[in-house]
Amino acid sequence: MASSPAPIDPRGPRTNQAVLAGALLLGFLTGQWLVVPVFGVVLFLGAAFGPKWGPVLRFYASVIKPRLAPPHELEDPRPPRFAATVGVLFLGSSTIAFLAGASMLGWTLAMIVAALAAAAATTGICVGCEMYVLFVRVRGGVRVVTIEREESRLFDTDRPERKGGWAAVPAAHQTGKPLWLVFTTEFCAVCPRVVEQISTQRPGDSVVVLNVAEHLDLASAYKVRRAPTVVRAEADGSVIVRLSGADAVRAELDALERESVAVG
Fold first, then answer.
1. Please, are residues 97 and 74 in contact by the beta-carbon 8 Å criterion?
2. Digit-coded pLDDT (tens) for 197-219
3. 191 and 228 in contact (C-beta within 8 Å)?
4. CATH numbers and ranges of domains, the chain
5. How many CA atoms lie within 13 A of 227 on its CB side?
6. pLDDT per residue over 2-12, tens digit each?
């Protein structure tokens, strides 16, 4: 069985996405369409040959990363690499459209890439990465999930600042019941089903759904990189586990159900 690739610092791809979004937007505003094929090549080099061949990724690794504290978490490199491949296809199609004289189509395709890259860079929600996870599930491969158990409290407003910032869940959500904090986006097709499953299997718990775009501070504090990301906590706000991805949530619900059956 092939071993999984070494995990990477997620700040590298997010830097790449931020530069890509900014460059495409600047090209659109100035009418310089050649920025599209240039950054298509930049994405292609990183996607096809790895981070050391991608100019922005290499700049991050050699110049920016040494000046930063170590990342709080690492991620599987396959989803962001797949997302970059999708970006290459869109930018390649955009370039062909420009060469054929269809500049409106060319800029439309390029701006789709810019919008998705900007969303990934600012919120951590990567649509291309979610596509990869979906394909893996459909293909029957290994599930890409993240389950982290850590000691923290959702309702601590006086908690010391930690690296990356800290934000407390509004007191209005303190219901005196075990809490499932669900981070979602308007593009997340599986999120409503996940919320419904939690509510069905844990009727005595409180479920709070937060849109990442409206709660960027909380999303950053709880390391939201995928939708859905769910933080499960006790009634007093003590965090039990952070679940990244629908499969992780289902696995946690199944484990709780097994525990309930065993106790009963």
1. no
2. 999 999 989 898 988 888 777 77
3. yes
4. 11-139 (no CATH), 146-263 (3.40.30.10)
5. 26
6. 445 667 788 89
